[in-house]
Amino acid sequence: MKKTVALNTLLLFLIHSFSYGQKSTYSGTYTSSTPISLNGVSNRTISNLKISNSKGNCITLTNCSNITIDNCKLGPSIGEGVSIEGCSNITVKYSSMESIRTGVYAVTSTGIKVEYNEVKNLQGPMPRGQMVQFDKVTGTGNSISYNVCENIAGKSNPEDAISLYQSQGTENDRIKIIGNVIRGGGPSNSGGGIMVGDNGGSYVLVENNILVNPGQYGISVTSGHNITVTNNKIYSRKFPFSNVGLYVWRQYEYETHTITISNNEINYTNKLGFLNNLWNAGNSGSIKGWKTNFYNSKLNESVLSEVIIGKNK
Q1: Tell me, which fold does domain 38-303 have in CATH?
Q2: In the 3-class helix/strand/coil scheme, how is the chain assigned residue by residue?
């Protein structure tokens, strides 16, 4: 497996609004709070809080339902920004996280939406180090979309920016990974941008994401079925850890078929200095759309602006 309420009000921080082309936005004020841990709580909104934790998670939700985390600033933290276990209908939106082990980690849950957030400098180490990881997240209403993630070399230790482990959507409502911006990865020799189908998974859509220098790989499908990866832009220059832009490889003995990889734009240089845009291991059945993916020599770091986190602060 890769990885794999009392609020104490102390101070007010005036925060200027920020926005990014991928629709990540925030405006408002923060109130300092101690870490929050909820168990068996429903119908609650946690908003406009600034939380750090040198001993654990910023926010922990266990067996909760219908919880919204909105306009919060999380980190630094030795744990997760938001830890979600055994929950349903949890939304994390318009929040910023920095210098945390993992942004959002959700396990054995359903209806999890992580959207319009900004995450900077994931600390890991493996098996943590994700902007968002879904671990056995199933059912309808699951989305990791319109987030911005940046890891700066020497200040971060990320693994996979987005990871789906044994997670399944439904035929009519796939897990959506749409419109995210990911910049910076490494020095991990295994981590990268977006990994789906880790130890199985199904009904996933990965679409319109932009990845720049994301690590060892850009996007990967490592098993599973009914998975679509389409219209993404993937770029990396040469790094000691860079390998391949997009690959399909059945690494686990799980049902693997009905995979579409189409219209992805790639320019990926491996650690030896050679282009290595696409790789199909040939053990995942017929890959629909494979020939529609293309190399664009003009795709480079300028696909993103110099500032992507807190652009208008």
Answers
A1: Pectate Lyase C-like (2.160.20)
A2: CCCCCCCCCCCEEEEEEEECCCCCEEEEEEEECCCEEEECCEEEEEECEEEEECCCCCEEEECCEEEEEECCEEEEECCEEEEEECCEEEEEECCEEEEECEEEEEECCEEEEEECCEEEEECCCCCCCCCEEEECCECCCCEEECCEEECCCCCCCCCCCEEEEEEECECCECEEEECCEEECCCCCCCCCCEEEEEEEEEEEEEECCEEECCCCEEEEECCEEEEEEECCEEEECCCCCCCEEEEECCCCCCCEEEEEEECCEEEEECCCCCECCEEECCCCCCEECHHHCEECCCCCHHHCCCCCCCCCC
Q: Are strands 42-47 and 12-19 parallel, antiparallel or unpaired?
A: unpaired
Q: Give residue for tokens 């992805």.
A: 264
- Is residue 166 within 8 A of residue 198, CB to CB? The reply is yes
Structure tokens at 285: 């059945």
Domain limits, the chain: 38-303
pLDDT tens digits, 263-303: 999 999 999 999 999 999 999 999 999 999 999 999 999 99
Question: Any bridge partners for residue 235, and if so which?
Answer: 212, 267
Burial of 260 per CB tally in 10 Å (0-12, 13-18, 19+): middle
Query: Which two three-digit tokens encode residue 208?
Result: 């319109």
262's tokens: 């189409």
Asked whether 158 and 125 are in contact (CB, 8 A), the reply is no
pLDDT in tens, 106-151: 999 999 999 999 999 999 988 899 999 999 999 999 999 999 999 9
Q: How far apart are CA 61 and CA 38, in angstroms?
A: 5
Name residue, tokens 């989305």.
Answer: 143
